[in-house]
């Protein structure tokens, strides 16, 4: 069974631009969660989608948004990029809801490294 | 903040030695998870321990949980160079009706051949 895939793997953008990252979960998994990892703040939860609906949300500004499609694939969008948005963005999939709460094991993708210049 | 904290921040040992990492957290939890991350890559789930469990084993890994002290430890026995990675503990947290998984800053383990 293929693992979680994320595209693109690397991305360079400039301040003010917007970016869309994509995540394909493991086949059969219905939940996708997104995380941001930076050296300063560590790993921080962005949001979790299940059955095309955002079910859980972290403490990020509205510039960070996401969506999930009927095939469970998910996209994350960041608008008006800031230098501080440079990070490794990780997505994780799980069979059921609340993978973030530990009720279902999460499987992580390799991440998309975003650099904002 | 609910964020767990790992201790030590960095650990360097020789192959064959045991490595122990500790995690402390602040509020009551239902479970605690440990993850491994190889340099700049995705996380790999290692083990989940529930609040009613005190100890759990998986291969060379042993995790303990002390809910009275709000702490957990991860022991890797007979370490190998391939165990070189960062290790994170993660705990669930509910805020404003949303559930999320909160990670600590991690312990960077280096196993020297």
Question: How would you characterize the overall build of this protein?
Answer:
The complex is a heterodimer of chains A (117) and B (113). With 117 residues, chain A is an all-beta fold. Chain A has no helices and eleven strands. The model of chain A has no long low-confidence stretch (mean pLDDT 92). Chain B has strands spanning 5-7, 10-14, 19-24, 31-37, 43-50, 55-58, 61-66, 71-76, 85-95, 98-103, 107-112. In chain B, a hairpin with a 4-residue loop joins strand 7 (61-66) and strand 8. Chain B is globular and about 45 Å long. The N and C termini of chain B lie far apart (38 Å). Classes of the chains: A mainly beta (117), B mainly beta (113). At the A-B interface, strand 5, strand 9 and strand 10 of A face strand 4, strand 5, strand 9 and strand 10 of B.
Give the total of beta strands of chain A.
11
Give the proportion of residues in helices of chain B: under 10%
Please report the distance between the alpha carbons of the first and last residues of chain B. Answer: 38 Å
**Biggest sheet features of chain B:** 6 strands, mixed
Terminal CA distance of chain A? 37 Å
**Major sheet characteristics of chain A:** 7 strands, mixed
Form type of chain B = globular
Q: List the uncertain runs of chain B.
A: none
E-strand count of chain B: 11
Number of helices of chain B: 0
Main interface pair? A-B, 28 and 28 residues
SSE series of chain B? EEEEEEEEEEE
Class by SSE composition of chain B: mainly beta
Indicate the radius of gyration of chain A in whole angstroms: 13 Å
Question: In DSSP terms, counting alpha (H) and pi (I) runs of 4 or more, how many helices of chain A?
Answer: 0
The gross shape of chain A turns out to be globular
Run of helices and strands of chain A: EEEEEEEEEEE
Report the radius of gyration of chain B as a whole number of Å: 14 Å
